[in-house]
Every structure is written in structure tokens, then in C-alpha cells.
Amino acid sequence: MPPVITCVEDLRLLAKKRVPRMFYDYADSGSWTEGTYRANESDFARIKLRQRVAVNMENRSLKSTMVGQDLAMPVALAPVGLVGMQHADGEILAARAAEKFGVPFTLSTMSICSIEDVAENVEKSFWFQLYVMRDRDFIRRLIDRAKAAGCSALVLTLDLQIMGQRNKDIRNGLSAPPKITLRNMLNMSTKPRWGLGMLGTSRRTFRNVVGHAKTAGDLSSLSEWSASQLDPTLNWDDVQWIKERWGGKLILKGIMDAEDAEIAARSGADAIIVSNHGGRQLDGAPSSIAALPSIAQAVGSKIEVLMDGGIRSGQDVIKALALGAKGVFIGRAFVYGLGAMGEAGVTKCLEIIQKELDVTLAFCGLRDVNKVDKAILVPGTY
Questions:
Q1: What are the Cα distances from residue 260, in Å, to 28, 253, 296?
Q2: Measured in Å, how far apart are the chain's first and last C-alpha atoms?
Q3: Has residue 225 been placed in a domain?
């Protein structure tokens, strides 16, 4: 009998059963004490909604736009690394689900399936997320590959100049490539569904990197390459040359401070994402939803403000919109769905969020998601 899935938490629990521990923990963890990681989700709970009655709730619409792209709802799939290790061909499956649903999919630089793999398996354009490495020639060619694949927006991540310490990954031996310990092998042997899927695909390494970066010609050399390539010198001048090289829609991810948001607004980018990297970088930083209002107030009239971090429901989406976001990204939520049920699980995640958003919109007395603002929130709770 198939499991009954009613919410994103149901998908998480099922993914935990079906995905090997090292890969599940990679997605479902934060840095150091994981305080910021937990706050991303828990801080939504304190924000309360005003319920309205005796208003016309017919003909509701969730249609919206993000960076000029028409969407079925103001939600995009966030860039997540190693998605192809949550489920075989994971990035392709997630991209297909997003395309059919009418929301953007963002492919990570550190994906298992390559830009070309995804482009060959979808009909519409998707977005590409860029990490800036020391090897600038590799980055230039990566940008050019995204352009050649028809990607319609570039998401430039600014908050991974150095790597935050993620204790679960250290304990599990997660590296590039993963350490095949007896403990990991035994755990993988208890996940037959996952194992059969991985045996059936050739996509089991970082295909955007291996064979493209000069010193990462194979899996064995990837670990040394990845450890040495994060660039602590990344600065706003780099944003300019990347913008010029790309020439299309540019979104800056990792903004958590109003002062940085002001600089980003002057950079010529099309949008910013208020994000603390899912609580995986600076532990002790505020949650994304806590940082959002001041940033939206500072630059919301100058640049499109998006938000990422802790979204687990349609109610979380509407709260972010009320506090100034034009749209939101979901990362872990869709990864849970993928790990639980493959492409169908990603679709299920989107359906759950869409229904929750639609019903909440109605209860708040609105019919158009673009009309959401602070008026739907209880004063003093945000």
C-alpha cells in the first residue's frame, strides 16, 4: 500500500527511509550547532495570519512572475548540490517536474547531472547557479555552456567564498568523491530502491566539472580540485565581469544584510535572493525570514527581492510574500520529494505547496497572490 502523503514533512520522513544516510544528511543539515538551519524553519511559526470572513473567494489566482518569467505560482526550485545522489538522475527528474508544473528549476554548479544532461531532457529553459572558482577560465567556459544550453537566468552565489563546517558530513565521510567506508556500504545496502536506480545510470559524478576543469579530469582528482577552488577573493568587481560575460538575467544569491543589498541593487543585477545558504555557512546568523523585511524595505523599490530558506509549506510562502519577497525558492522541500518518490515526489511537493498557498490566500481574504502584503499578518508577530 503506497504511503499517504499530506505535507512536506511526510516526504521528508519517507526520504529519510529511502536515501543513504550520508546523502540524506548532506541535504538535511546545517553548519556547526545548526542553530541558523533550525531557525530558518522555526521562525515562520511566530508569524501569524489574519483570517478574514464573508469575502468573495472565487476565481483565485496564484499566477505570478519572477525576473520577468511567468509562473504558475511564485515558487522556484533552488540550486542544491548532489541532487543526483538523492535519486538517480535527480536533477533531470526535478527539472522535468518543475517544467510540467510551470515553475523554474535552478541547476547547481555542483550537480551530478550536467547542464547539457538537463538541457537534453527538458523542452523549456531552466536557470543555472554559478559558484565562482579560482580557475576563472573554467568559470568563463561554464557561463558559456549555460548560455549555449539556453538557460534563461544565472544565479550567482556570493556566500560560499569559504566552506562552513558541516559536522554531519565530516562524520559521514561525505567528500568529493564520497568515502566508501564499511559503515556507508552497510547503510547503502539497506536502500535497494536507491541502489538499483544508481546502477541504472551513468551519472554518478559532478558532470559539470569532471572533464571540463583542467585538473579534475576524473573522479579521483576531483577532491583535491574542489578543496582548492573556492575563491575567498570574490568581490563586487567579479559580479561585473560575470554580468558582462553572461549578458542575460542575473540573480545574486546570499544577501543577508541591507548594506549588501544596496550594493547589489547598484550592481545592475535583476534580483537578489535573501538567503543564508540554508543555514549551512554562518551559524548564528539570522534566519532568512527574519532578515527579509529590512532588506525588502531598503531595496524593494530598486531591485526584485526573492527569498530562500526554511520554506516547507504554502503558508510559509505567503508569509514571505507578505514581508516583501516577490517570490521564494524551495530547496530541501523538493529534495525530500525527490528522495522519497523521484519525479513524482517533486511534483507532489509542488502540489502540496500550491494547495496550501491557495487555501491560505482565500482564508486571508484575497483572490490574487500578487496582492499579498503585510496587511494579512497579525501586527506584533513579525
A1: 28, 11, 12
A2: 42
A3: yes
Binned at pLDDT 50, 70 and 90, residue 333 comes out as very high
Q: The pTM is what?
A: 0.96
Strands (E) across 131-258 are located at: 153-157, 249-255
Q: Which long-range CB contacts under 8 A does 162-168 form with residues at least 24 apart?
A: 162/230, 162/232, 163/230, 164/31, 164/32, 164/277, 164/280, 164/281, 164/282, 164/283, 165/31, 165/32, 166/26, 166/29, 166/30, 166/31, 166/280, 167/29, 167/31, 167/32, 168/25, 168/26, 168/29
For residue 325, give the amino acid letter: A
Instruction: Quickly state the pLDDT bin for 223 (edges 50, 70, 90).
Output: low
* Residue at 1 is within a domain: no
The answer, yes or no, to whether residue 222 has pLDDT greater than 90, is no
Provide the pLDDT confidence category of residue 199 given band limits of 50, 70 and 90.
Answer: very high
| Nearest Cα to Cα of residue 106 among 238, 237, 273 | 273
How many Å apart are CA 246 and CA 244, to the nearest integer? 5
Give me the pLDDT at residue 176, please. 63
- pLDDT of 147 > 60? The answer is yes
CA distance 163 to 32: 12
> Any catalytic annotation for residue 87?
no
Q: What is the CATH number of the domain that holds 136?
A: 3.20.20.70
When divided into structural domains, the chain yields a total of 1
Residue 66 β-bridge partners:
69
What Å distances lie between residue 62 and 103, 142, 217, 354, 374, CA to CA? 12, 34, 45, 8, 18
In a domain, 173, yes or no: yes
Phi, psi of 280 (to 5 degrees): -105, 0
pLDDT at position 258: 98
In a domain? residue 382: no
How far apart (Å, rounded) are the C-alpha atoms in residues 380 and 20? 43
| The pLDDT of residue 122 | 98
Please give the Cα distance from 151 to 143 (Å, whole number).
10
Domain that holds residue 200: 8-376
Rounded Cα–Cα distance for residues 131 and 39 (Å): 25
Rounded CA-CA distance 85/207 in Å is 12
Would you state the cell numbers that stand for residue 207, as one nine-digit string? 558532470
CA 104/CA 126 separation, integer angstroms: 6
Query: Which cell numbers in the block locate residue 210?
Result: 569532471
| Annotated catalytic residue within 277, 280, 312, 332 | 277
